[in-house]
Amino acid sequence: MYEAVHAHPDGESTAARVAATAGRMGYDGVVIRARTAAPDYAAVREASDIDVVDAVEVVAPDPERASGAVGGLRPDHTLLCVRGGTDRLNRFAVESERVDVLTRPMADGGDVNHVLANCAAANGVRIEFDFGPVLRTTGGERVRALRDLRKLRELVADADAPFVVSATPESHLQLRASRELIAVGEAVGFDPETVRAGLCEWGDLAERNRHRQSESFVEPGVERGRHDE
Amino acid sequence: MKHLPKHLRPRWRYLAVGIETWPDADLSRSDFQRAVWYAAGNLLGDPGSADADLRVLHFSFGDGAGEAVVRARRGEVGPARAALACVSEVDGHPVGLHVRGVSGTIRSCEERYLKP
Fold first, then answer.
1. In total, how many domains does chain A have?
2. In chain A, pLDDT over 90 holds for what percent of residues?
3. Can you give the pLDDT at residue A9?
4. Residues of B in contact with A136 (CB under 8 A)
5. Can you give the CATH number for the domain in which A181 is found?
6. Which of A45, A163, A225, B113 is the most exposed place for a label (fewest CB within 10 A)?
């Protein structure tokens, strides 16, 4: 299982520290969703003995600027996430096949409907269930986050759209082990299997993209390999 | 009052919890207990919180790291784990919590999961 984290300078802890903590908690790897962070991935991977995935999170005010960033960053990173949060950005993300994950679609008044969920399913864009507000806020803010999570859960289940789960930790202190996230998911109405699948999905996605970016890959179904006599 | 016969006594599970903070934080047992109760009350509601009946039994902390044993009713370990995951701050200090393991007795919990 993988967790997608913010590392210094986007978050408060360095990538190495987050990876070490995640390793202690039993994760198989971490996805560094970088905006400005550029850690030395090889060194961090070696020091923590878990997988560290090179990802980028595009945070843009509108789809026009997001589109430029997606085109520019896609070839250089294993995973590409687009931060949602407005209806236009959510729509842009689920409509572009080049995007792997739409993060925080319901934050800041953003919304998702059945059209976007079906579109995400058709384009293979993962929709993120963000557990961060459930873990770290209280009162009305948390009630709204839970209401949004429920709506998203029903839409994703109906459209059979792909999804990922994350606690969006901004420091190593905000990391929670996978069993804790599964327990929280159960307390707020998620199926334990769903949360587990959402945490595993990050790893599967990274593996798929690494394979696609490897030398032997030409296009889906076509690979350069050894010629059999 | 006369103590309960064995089959009527509540059964408990003991959760070993690792605590981590920034180095300048200073936590006390009562602060941690209060944070756990608040988290349980907020996430599980009053009935769920009463069912889980979380209590901090053992607490040690120093230099930004600590450990605790938290008692929960048997059968309520899942909700207890969820409530502990929602403890994000203790007395204004951000904390990281990790349930290291669950045992049926305090002694085995301390022997297996806490530092000697």
1. 1
2. 76
3. 87
4. 86, 88
5. 3.20.20.140
6. A225
| Closest alpha carbon within chain A to B80 | A183
Nearest to A184 among B21, B22, B82 (CB): B82
pLDDT higher than threshold 80 for residue A225: no
**Residue A103 located in a structural domain:** yes
pLDDT at A229: 58
**A24: chain B residues, CB-CB within 8 Å:** 98
Quick count: other Cβ atoms within 10 Å of Cβ A110?
Answer: 18
Mean pLDDT across the stretch A13-33? 93
Share of chain B above pLDDT 90, in %: 92
Nearest by CB to B85, which of A24, A142, A176? A176
Residue A25 lies in a domain: no
Mean pLDDT score of chain A:
91
Q: Give contacts of B 52-71 with A, CB under 8 A.
A: none
pLDDT of B105 strictly over 90: yes
pLDDT surpassing 70 at residue B68:
yes
Strands of the sheet containing A126-130, edge to edge, are A2-5, A29-34, A51-58, A79-83, A101-103, A126-130, A163-166
Domains of chain B (ranges plus CATH)?
Answer: 9-113 (3.30.70.3250)
- Residue A22 domain-assigned? no
Q: Is the pLDDT of residue A228 over 70?
A: no
Query: How far is it, in rounded angstroms, from Cα A213 to Cα A147?
Result: 38
Contacts of B84 in chain A (CB under 8 A): 180
Query: Considering the domain boundaries, does residue A71 fall inside one?
Result: yes
Q: In terms of DSSP bridges, do strands B93-103 and B89-90 run parallel, antiparallel, or are they unpaired?
A: antiparallel
- Mean pLDDT, chain B, as a whole number? 94
